[in-house]
Structures are given as structure tokens and as C-alpha cells.
């Protein structure tokens, strides 16, 4: 992205949830010469990470404030990125614009996360914005294919990865989650509303309590749902994921190449190599 193209596209509105990934993407987009306007979500984004950065803080229900500020800044394109616990309707603290949209928001809540996010995406578009995926503004964040670490997956690991991908593909229509933990052809945990970190914490607790037959072994497998809108909520990994894999006693992780996001790749690989766990980008781009 050169300066002329960035100027034509105008500033990018980046709505930031939890984790370091939104800021990593912001820095990469800025390095391409495009201005980034940060909108940090209260209760999700960590204020410590935003110290020294110019960010507008919003509650989830302040749609009108976002629309006004984004338009005033000249933003047409919007990216939503970072972890966010799905709030209950009564927790939204809606402003006037949000109140006007509440009937459609309430209807969007009657479904899984993909259903909700796709409807939220349409609301942005109806307000005149163009919703983009983080990989469209910073394609270098996508998971590459192949093993990124010195440690390689074993044949048993490969078999568990295939099982995990098959499970995610089969479960995709039910809009459950994007991750599963498999060990010795046995599913140990399935990601649901709690997210990947808590899923790994459950496996770690099962190991500590002696409820798993082996002290270590198994893999974390992550892939998008087959019909998922890739502009929203692509599976992601980062150094924190490596920490969770290590605490859970797993051999490594496999992530869908080309359709998953890798945050802070250098730090992730260094952490994985220190812990002697593997990180694998699985070809094909989906759980097939």
C-alpha cells in the first residue's frame, strides 16, 4: 500500500477489543502509510496497552458516537478486531443511534456469534461504512503454511490434527467455536463462548486433577467455520496461546493457513521454540 493509495482510501477506523492484536495491526497499517483511527472498547481493550496512543474510548452500545467520530475523521473503512465477550442486551448502554437499531440488534442476538457478527456488519454498511477484515488491510498477519518452529509434529500429532479439523468442519454449522483440543484420537475440549485461552485452561486443570490418562500430549487445532465471514472474527493465535498450550501440556498447535491470524509472530515462535512445542500452518485454508 503506497502513500497515494492510502490517501485515496482515507483513514481506517479500527474498533479494538481485547489483546495486543488490534495494536499490532494498527502499527502495520500505519507502516504502509495509512492513517489509523483507534476506537477502543471499554471493558475489553486494556487501557495500559493504549497509554501514549490517541484512542477514542467507547462502550459497546455507543454506536452513534462511533458513527459521528468516524465520519468526522474521514473514515469509510472499518475493521473490528480483538477479543470481546458477548454482552447481554441489558449491558449494552445504548445511545440514541443504538436505541433506533435495537429491534435489529435484538433479532441478531437470536443466534450464535457468527449470526450476531454478520448482522452487526450489515448495520455498519447501512450507515455508509465498508467493513473489512484485518487481513485485507494487513495481509502479512495471516498464518503461513508449514511448520514455523524447530519442533516438528509427530505422526500421532498429525493424526490428531486431522481429527480436529474434521470435527471443526462438522461442527461449523452449529456456530459453536473455532478450536478443539485432541489427544491420542480423543477430543479433550471444545471451544465455546469462553474462548481459546479458557479452553486451554480447562485442559490444564484436567491434567492437574489427574483426570487425563497422560501427563502431556495432544494438540490445539484452530480453523474458521466453513461458512464464516472472513471479515469478522477469524481465529487467531499469539504468544499467549503458546503459554496456554504449554500449561495444558500439549505438544503444539495447528492453525488454518491463510485464514487465521498470527499476532506477534516473532515472539510467538521464540516462545514456542523455548518450550519445545510446534506451531503448524495447515494448508487448505479451512477445516476440510
Q: Report the biggest beta sheet as strand number plus sense, adding barrel if it closes.
A: 6 strands, mixed
* Count of runs of 4 or more consecutive helical residues: 10
Domain count, please report it.
Answer: 2
User: Roughly what is the average pLDDT, rounded to an integer?
Assistant: 85
The end-to-end span amounts to 33 Å
Widest sheet: strand ordering:
6-13-11-9-7-8
Structure, explained:
40% of the residues are buried. The strands form 3 sheets. A 6-stranded mixed sheet has the order 6-13-11-9-7-8, sandwiched between helices. The protein is an alpha/beta fold and 288 residues long. It has 2 domains: 3-139, Rossmann fold (3-Layer(aba) Sandwich), CATH 3.40.50.20; 142-282, LpxI C-terminal catalytic domain (Cytidine Deaminase, domain 2, 3-Layer(aba) Sandwich). It has helices at 3-9, 21-31, 63-72, 96-108, 113-126, 134-137, 155-171, 196-208, 239-247, 265-275, and strands at 12-16, 36-41, 55-58, 77-81, 130-132, 146-147, 179-183, 186-190, 219-222, 236-237, 252-256, 261-262, 278-282. 38% of the residues lie in helices and 18% in strands. A hairpin with a 2-residue loop joins β7 and β8 (186-190). It is elongated and about 55 Å long. α9 (239-247) runs parallel beside α10 (265-275).
Amino acid at each position: 500500500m503506497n502513500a497515494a493509495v492510502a490517501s485515496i482510501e482515507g483513514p481506517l477506523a479500527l474498533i479494538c477489543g481485547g489483546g495486543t492484536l488490534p495494536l499490532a495491526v494498527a502499527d502495520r497499517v500505519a507502516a504502509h502509510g495509512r492513517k489509523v483511527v483507534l476506537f477502543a472498547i471499554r471493558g475489553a481493550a486494556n487501557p495500559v496497552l493504549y497509554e501514549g496512543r490517541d484512542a477514542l474510548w467507547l462502550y459497546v452500545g455507543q454506536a452513534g458516537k462511533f458513527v459521528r467520530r468516524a465520519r468526522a475523521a474521514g473514515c469509510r473503512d472499518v475493521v473490528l478486531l480483538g477479543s470481546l465477550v458477548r454482552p447481554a442486551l441489558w449491558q449494552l448502554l445504548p445511545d440514541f443511534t443504538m436505541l433506533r437499531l435495537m429491534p435489529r440488534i435484538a433479532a441478531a442476538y437470536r443466534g450464535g456469534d457468527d449470526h450476531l457478527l454478520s448482522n452487526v456488519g450489515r448495520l455498519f454498511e447501512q450507515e455508509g461504512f465498508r467493513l473489512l477484515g484485518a487481513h485485507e488491510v494487513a495481509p502479512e498477519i495471516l498464518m503461513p503454511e508449514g511448520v514455523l518452529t524447530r519442533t516438528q509434529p509427530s505422526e500421532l500429532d498429525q493424526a490428531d490434527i486431522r481429527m480436529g479439523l474434521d470435527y471443526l468442519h462438522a461442527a461449523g454449522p452449529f456456530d459453536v467455536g473455532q478450536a478443539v483440543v485432541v489427544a491420542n484420537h480423543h477430543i479433550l475440549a471444545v471451544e465455546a463462548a469462553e474462548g481459546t485461552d479458557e479452553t486451554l485452561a480447562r485442559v490444564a486443570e484436567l491434567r492437574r486433577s489427574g483426570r487425563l490418562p497422560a501427563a502431556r500430549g495432544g494438540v490445539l487445532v484452530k480453523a474458521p467455520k466453513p461458512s464464516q465471514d472472513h471479515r469478522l472474527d477469524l481465529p487467531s493465535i499469539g504468544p499467549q496461546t503458546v503459554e496456554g498450550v504449554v500449561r495444558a501440556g500439549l505438544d503444539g498447535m495447528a492453525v488454518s493457513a491463510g485464514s487465521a491470524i498470527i499476532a506477534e509472530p516473532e515472539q510467538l515462535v521464540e516462545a514456542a521454540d523455548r518450550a519445545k512445542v510446534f506451531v503448524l500452518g495447515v494448508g487448505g485454508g479451512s477445516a476440510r
